[in-house]
């Protein structure tokens, strides 16, 4: 990057980092007080960024750095996320588990998107809500957004309500364990199928037991693994049309960060990434994602975000209900094998 370009982005990146540090401090305090995180730093980052923009406004000098942080840093985070997933981890769970998770995610995407469109949401917003609900919450939303060309308001709106519903699920889900007499394995599978973010899976399963944590995390990682194929399908859908009588090249159809995601996963599977480096990559991915969330919040105005809030919230609730029903069906299939 040229020196002039670096100077141009530094102010916006700096503000994004400051918001990130504040969000992490709040999340740390929350965990110290309650013993776990109801809302992770990602959610606090976008909320703080949005509040800042809504109250103070975003100076023109910050725009370049904010745009850089919300796009490139996020793509780098997705690449690093691939280091936390091994092909062996998926294979060891069995083909039936993989098939059930795959079917659940794909059916949830179709049902959630259909619900959103029936409620009058735009194509972009419906796609983001469906991805967030079906795959991995905030990460899926922000990964899909640049591929489909969604604007900041759609991204922030879908994240806001996905985050709110994710918190509600974490609070209510442990009640199901005692209310329905579930085993730790059953509860772990259901939690992994329905909870949005990995930290929230840990928060929802930790009170139940170690077995639930392990099963829930494994199922959740399988859903995260669907992020790459789904983003690729979205790229094909939105960019795979003919241009000038010829098909677009593969390098334009496949985002570089998706290639990087799979490359890191393969390196992890081959044992070429040391365990210490895996932990570092996971931490770096979380940090970069939080910075990008802060930048995303800095790009939106709260009044605009909540302009279509009622419909988005209803779409999210109905999509979550559909995902929960699919989770129950998937659990019954796995038990019957």
Characterization of this structure:
The protein has one domain. The chain is mainly α. It has a two-stranded antiparallel sheet. The N and C termini lie far apart (55 Å). The relative contact order is 0.19. It is globular and about 60 Å long. Helix 1 crosses helix 2 and helix 6 packs parallel to helix 8.
Number of domains: 1
What is the chains' assembly state?
A: single chain
Topology, number of strands: 2
Radius of gyration: 20 Å
Average pLDDT confidence is 82
Number of helices: 17
Structural class estimated from helices and strands: mainly alpha
Strand content: under 5%
For the biggest β-sheet, the strand order reads 1-2
**What percent of residues adopt helix (DSSP H or I)?**
over 70%
Report the uncertain regions.
Answer: 241-253
The run of helices and strands is: HHHHHHHHHHHHEEHHHHH
State the shape.
globular
Q: How does the major sheet shape up?
A: 2 strands, antiparallel
Distance between the termini: 55 Å
Task: Looking at this protein, list some descriptive labels.
two-stranded antiparallel ribbon; transmembrane; mainly alpha; cell membrane; globular; 81% helix; 337 residues; membrane
């Amino acid at each position: 990057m040229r020196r002039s370009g670096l100077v141009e982005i530094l102010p916006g990146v700096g503000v994004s980092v400051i918001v990130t540090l504040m969000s992490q401090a709040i999340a740390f305090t929350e965990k110290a007080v309650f013993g776990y995180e109801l809302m992770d730093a990602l959610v606090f980052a976008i909320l703080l960024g949005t509040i800042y923009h809504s109250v103070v406004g975003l100076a023109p000098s910050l725009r370049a750095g904010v745009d850089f942080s919300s796009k490139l840093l996020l793509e780098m985070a997705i690449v690093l996320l691939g280091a936390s997933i091994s092909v062996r981890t998926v294979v060891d769970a069995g083909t039936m588990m993989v098939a059930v998770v795959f079917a659940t995610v794909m059916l949830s995407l179709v049902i959630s998107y259909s619900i959103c469109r029936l409620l009058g949401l735009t194509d972009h917003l419906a796609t983001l809500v469906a991805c967030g609900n079906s795959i991995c919450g905030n990460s899926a939303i922000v990964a899909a957004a640049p591929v489909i060309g969604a604007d900041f308001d759609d991204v922030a709106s879908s994240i806001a309500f996905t985050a709110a519903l994710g918190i509600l699920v974490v609070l209510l889900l442990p009640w199901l364990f005692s209310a329905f007499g579930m085993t730790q394995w059953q509860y772990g599978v259901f939690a992994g199928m329905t909870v949005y973010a990995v930290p929230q899976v840990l928060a929802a399963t930790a009170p139940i037991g170690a077995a639930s944590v392990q099963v829930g995390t494994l199922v959740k990682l399988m859903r995260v693994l669907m992020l790459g194929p789904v983003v690729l399908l979205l790229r094909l859908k939105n960019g795979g049309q003919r241009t000038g009588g010829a098909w677009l090249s593969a390098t334009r159809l496949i985002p570089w960060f998706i290639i990087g995601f799979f490359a890191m996963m393969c390196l992890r599977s081959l044992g070429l990434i040391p365990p210490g480096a895996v932990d570092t990559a996971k931490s770096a991915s979380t940090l970069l994602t939080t910075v990008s969330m802060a930048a995303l919040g800095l790009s939106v105005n709260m009044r605009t975000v909540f302009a279509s809030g009622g419909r988005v919230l209803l779409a999210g609730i109905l999509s979550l209900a559909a995902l929960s029903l699919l989770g129950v069906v998937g659990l019954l299939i796995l038990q019957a094998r």
